[in-house]
Design a protein that fits this description.
The protein contains 5 helices and 3 strands; from the N terminus they run H-H-H-H-H-E-E-E. With about 140 residues, the chain is α+β, with helices and mostly antiparallel strands. Among the domains are: about 55 residues; about 30 residues, no CATH class. The N and C termini lie far apart (about 85 Å).
Length: about 140
């Protein structure tokens, strides 16, 4: 046996180990977890456990974590550094930094707002005078 394992480059402990099959209870719980994950792919182990309790299945969070890991599931969430600036983009200087605004029509700006409505949406664009803070047009 030692020679055969050496030829196959296989540790002898794994040769004698036979994994236990997944129990029927775990298969039923994995089915429920899969159903929850398909409906709410952004749920982690805590929220899946809460969902299972709401469905009437009292289960430990560590068991849920183990089953999720066995199934290879991951919650969908935004990754890190999503708002990092692209280094290839040009950075324009801020021209109003030391400017003293002391008269009307010296500096204007625009603002865009998204407004959801019952049937669709509206974009509202406004032009604002900085000195008087008056909306010139919309």
């Amino acid at each position: 046996m030692r020679r055969q394992c050496a030829l196959l480059d296989l540790p002898r402990s794994t040769f004698f180990h036979s994994p236990k099959p997944v129990s029927d209870d775990d298969l039923a719980m994995m089915s429920l977890i899969d159903r929850c994950h398909l409906k709410y792919p952004f749920y982690g182990s805590r929220r899946i456990r809460g969902w299972l309790i709401d469905e009437g299945y009292w289960v430990n969070r560590k068991r849920v974590q183990r089953l999720i890991r066995t199934m290879g599931l991951e919650a969908l969430y935004p990754g890190r550094h999503l708002s990092k600036a692209n280094q290839a983009h040009k950075v324009y200087p801020y021209l109003l930094r030391n400017l003293i605004i002391d008269r009307p029509n010296q500096v204007w700006s625009t603002d865009i707002t998204y407004i959801p409505m019952a049937k669709g949406f509206v974009y509202l664009v406004a032009v604002i005078d900085w000195y008087s803070r008056r909306v010139l047009s919309w």
